[in-house]
Amino acid sequence: MRSAPQRLKPHAIDIRVNIDPVHWFLSPPRDTRSSLRRLLYHSFRGAQWTDVKKPERRQYLKNAYRVLLTRARQGMVIFVPPGAGRDRTRSPAFYEGVYDYLTGMSVAEM
């Protein structure tokens, strides 16, 4: 297990899969592992994203994304931690912005 998921243990979340969310949150937009990419019509080839230009392929990707969203609508949990002021990688201001964005889109708080 990598050390990055250990950061969620103070929030009673134990991740037992071999993932590295550091890249998801901290990598720049050009990094294919980064969350700072909006939904674009790309296909992953080798170690990079390539543009999808054919309209029918774009429609297929759009529909596939919709299917994924509908499959996850029940039982999906989005955890937004409170952040930690002493840790520059866990700024409370960042998490508050994410929280405000999600609640502004009517994501229910539990």
Please name the defining characteristics of this protein.
mainly alpha; two-stranded antiparallel ribbon; globular
Please explain how this structure is put together:
The protein has helices at residues 21-26, 55-71, 92-104, and strands spanning 42-45, 48-51. It has 110 residues and is mainly alpha-helical. The chain folds into three domains: 1-37, no CATH class; 39-76, no CATH class; 77-110, no CATH class. It has a two-stranded antiparallel sheet. β1 (42-45) and β2 (48-51) form a beta hairpin. The longest helix is centred in the middle third of the chain and has 17 residues, at 55-71.
The share of residues in helices is 25-40%
Average predicted confidence as pLDDT = 75
Provide the succession of SSEs: HEEHH
Q: Determine Rg (CA atoms, Å).
A: 17 Å
Overall 3D shape: globular
